[in-house]
Write a structure and sequence with these properties.
It is a single chain. The chain is mainly alpha-helical and 168 residues long. Helices cover 48% and strands 4% of the residues. It contains 7 helices and 2 strands; from the N terminus they run ααβααβααα. It has helices at 3-13, 18-41, 51-57, 62-72, 97-106, 110-113, 124-137, and strands spanning 48-50, 90-92. A two-stranded antiparallel ribbon has the order 1-2. α1 packs across α4, α3 packs across α4 (62-72) and α5 crosses α7. 19% of the residues are buried. This is SEC-C domain-containing protein.
């Protein structure tokens, strides 16, 4: 069984009561924060190696590293083969800093996007811009309301109430 499948079974499919889930995720998020503190502190040194080597480097279990790799994969310049990776699979942590920050905001991971290490990577204005862009990406903007007697926007030439607005 691939590492990712094992991680997802452990993290998402294992029956846990509220207390166990809080403890599991609290521990994971704490370890994740520690890894990010290290990789954000040395942005010019892209980290790479096997899954097992990275787990040893960051002092975490292989499955925790697998969860971390799953989380960061969308923010990497060259995504890792996470679906098929095993302990000896070569992976990298060469991240796009703007994309990573944007994705952290999207995941509502304030313990990560508020890390002090971001001060040296992105200026405050850029962080605010990315934060605002992410928050607005989920905002639905409704168009102008169509009046019942206005021409239907589908182009039929009929009044809206006699066309697309019939069942509205």
């Amino acid at each position: 069984m691939a590492l990712l499948e094992t991680w997802r079974k452990l993290a998402y499919e294992t029956e846990m009561n509220q207390n166990q889930a809080t403890q599991f995720w609290g521990n994971y998020f704490n370890l994740e924060k520690g890894i990010y503190e290290q990789i954000l502190s040395t942005p010019d040194e892209p980290v790479s190696g096997t899954v097992k080597e990275l787990a040893e480097k960051f002092n975490v279990e292989v499955l925790i590293m697998t969860g971390f790799l799953d989380g960061i994969n969308d923010s990497l310049k060259n995504p890792n083969p996470i679906e098929t990776m095993e302990e000896d699979t070569q992976v990298n942590l060469d991240y796009d800093k703007e994309k990573l920050y944007y994705n952290m905001v999207g995941a509502k991971a304030d313990w990560l996007y508020e890390l002090p290490q971001w001060d040296n990577l992105l200026d405050e204005a850029k962080r605010k811009e990315l934060y605002k862009k992410q928050k607005l990406s989920g905002t639905v903007i409704k168009g102008k309301k169509i009046g019942r007697n206005e021409p239907c926007p589908c182009g039929s030439g009929k009044k809206y109430k006699n066309c697309c607005g019939k069942n509205a």
